[in-house]
TrEMBL record:
Source organism per UniProt: Mastacembelus armatus
Protein name: Polypyrimidine tract-binding protein 1
RRM domain: residues covered: 55-129, 166-242, 344-418, 461-536
Predominant location: nucleus
UniProt entry keywords in alphabetical sequence: Acetylation, Activator, Isopeptide bond, mRNA processing, mRNA splicing, Nucleus, Phosphoprotein, Repeat, Repressor, RNA-binding, Ubl conjugation
GO molecular function, one term: RNA binding
């Protein structure tokens, strides 16, 4: 278990290395001495963040008016801070922790949740130095005074706020919200130490602990009443009567970021809604655990080229400007989803020009959202525009379908610069290459809170069938699905409900084509077959 934790920590740190060191010149350099109260001796800076653990932490890109107390407070949740060296002219600082373990926990945590000080992202890495040797300059005396004032015995958070623990209720829960989503929203205002999510009185709630009351106060002031998504998932925040949270397991229901060694509990953590994990850009949310770890720490966000996803082989493209989204927009939403509002048109390329139709794209993309319009380009029939009903759905479709094979060719999906798909002018028919589906009865997500939201899975060889009439038996469905030339490997009716079944095709590609062909197939008795991808196999 322990080895896995450290693997995560180093992955988290190394991953961002290109970004982390882009501002540093090659070759060792000397921290220059300046008159603004910096250390008078010359201090050899770390040229490249060492991946080797050390008690000394190197912190970069600090705001120029940073205070000693703010730097120390970055380390306090993880253990006692034993020394501090401020290099204000370089916007850097070195922090020495009381143990290597505390330092590892700190670097591991900040590789998953980037610390923000006054709206500025700050970079945290191990130093090449094993300990800090400091002198008695006035600047150093100030640092020592701050250390004494803030040592754990003196922390008094009660003055700033009634509690360091917030109770969060999410109202109007149209889209699922994960523990990781909340962590990354609330970490804008301070270090989230511990978090627990649960459902009470049929409401999704969370308890969340900061190291200090000021962070809790700031988060409550800024976020209370905000919507996570446009028009829904509203945050209602109050101070909890609890003074601390006791977390026993690190999984999708609870997390103690100061204790990466905690077990995940008996059951394998299952993400409540794995599809949402891939639905966000780095910079705001990446809720995806590393493949193979049991306590799912999200990967470092905002400093990596692509978000890993819970599904092997599936990556979410990193959208540009991820860091820009750190400052909250003035509107009453949190800047989600990451595709700019109104950008819900996808450009799909590498299609098979003889075989693709608007209908087949409508059905396939309709698994991940409501498709409004489809246009196959007249001059380049291997390209199409697909307009989803909102940008979250566009992101879901893009992250699940990019690279999947349709008609023997891997789909390439990017965000289109168009904000909508134009219909041809009356009398200018384009051979049926543009279709308007805005009033289609086949939309899966029309109803707010529809259970289809919680059944979104990546393409898989096993399909979930529903709305099967009583007269249709196993052989009927096997024959139907093999009628197109595909191979049916296995079939199973649900024990409790014969209206539903699982059918396993020869490959993911065959399953995709079968879903397109047989979703909404008329089985008689006024029953149209519903087909979606399954997370289970037979």
């Amino acid at each position: 278990m322990d080895g896995g934790v450290h693997h995560d920590i180093t992955v988290g740190t190394k991953r961002g290395s290109d970004e982390l060191f882009s501002s540093i010149s090659n070759g060792p350099y000397i921290m220059s001495t300046t008159a603004n109260g910096n250390d008078s001796k010359k201090f050899k800076g770390d040229v490249r963040g060492s991946g080797v653990p050390s008690r000394v932490i190197h912190i970069r890109r600090l705001p120029s008016d940073i205070t000693e107390a703010e730097v120390i407070s970055l380390g306090l949740p993880f253990g006692d801070v034993t020394n501090l060296l401020m290099l204000k002219a370089k916007n850097q600082a070195f922090l020495e922790m009381n143990s290597e373990e505390a330092a590892q926990n700190m670097v591991g945590y900040y590789s998953t949740v980037m610390p923000i000080i006054r709206h500025h992202p700050v970079y945290v890495q191990f130093s090449n130095h094993k300990e800090l040797k400091t002198d008695n300059s006035p600047n150093q005396e100030r640092a020592q005074a701050a250390l004494r004032a803030l040592s754990t015995s003196h922390v008094d958070t009660a003055v700033a706020a009634p509690s360091t623990v917030l109770r969060v209720v999410v109202e109007n829960l149209v889209y699922p919200v994960t523990l990781d989503a909340l962590c990354q929203i609330f970490s804008k205002f301070g270090t989230v130490l511990r978090i627990i999510v649960f459902t009470k009185n049929s409401q999704f709630q969370a308890l969340l602990q900061y190291p200090d009351g000021a962070s809790a106060q700031a988060a409550k002031l800024s976020l209370d009443g905000q919507n996570i998504y446009n028009g829904c998932c509203t945050l209602r925040i109050s101070f909890s009567k609890l003074t601390s949270l006791n977390v026993k397991y690190n999984n999708e229901k609870s997390r103690d970021f100061t204790r990466p060694d905690l077990p995940s509990g008996d059951s394998q953590p299952t993400m409540e809604h794995p599809a949402m994990a891939t639905a966000f850009t780095p910079g705001i949310i990446s809720a995806a655990p590393y493949a193979g770890t049991t306590h799912a720490f999200p990967p470092a966000f905002a400093i990596q080229p692509a978000v890993s996803s819970p599904y092997p082989g599936l990556t979410v493209p990193a959208l540009p400007g991820a860091l820009a989204s750190f400052s909250l927009p003035g509107a009453t939403r949190l800047g989600f989803p990451p595709i700019p509002a109104g950008h819900c048109v996808l450009l799909v390329s590498n299609l098979h020009p003889e075989r693709v139709t608007p209908h087949c794209l409508f059905i396939l993309f309709g698994v991940y959202g409501d498709v409004m319009r489809v246009k196959i380009l007249f001059n380049k029939k291997e390209n199409a525009l697909v307009q989803m009903s909102d940008s979250t759905q566009a992101q879901l479709a893009m992250s699940h379908l990019n690279g999947q094979r349709l008609h023997e060719k891997p789909l390439r999906i990017t965000l289109s610069k168009h904000t909508s798909v134009q219909l041809p002018r009356e009398g200018h028919e384009d051979q049926g290459l543009t279709k308007d589906y805005s009033n289609s009865p086949l939309h899966r997500f029309k109803k707010p809170g529809s259970k289809n939201y919680s059944n979104i899975f990546p393409p898989s060889a096993t399909l979930h069938l529903s709305n099967i009439p009583p007269s249709v038996v196993e052989d009927d469905l096997k024959m139907l699905f093999s009628s197109s030339g595909a191979m049916v490997k296995a079939f199973k009716f649900f024990q409790k409900d014969h209206k539903m079944a699982l059918i396993q095709m020869g490959s993911v590609e065959e399953a995709i084509e079968s879903l397109i062909e047989f979703h909404n197939h008329d089985l008689g008795e006024n029953h149209h077959l519903r087909v979606s991808f399954s997370k289970s196999s037979i």
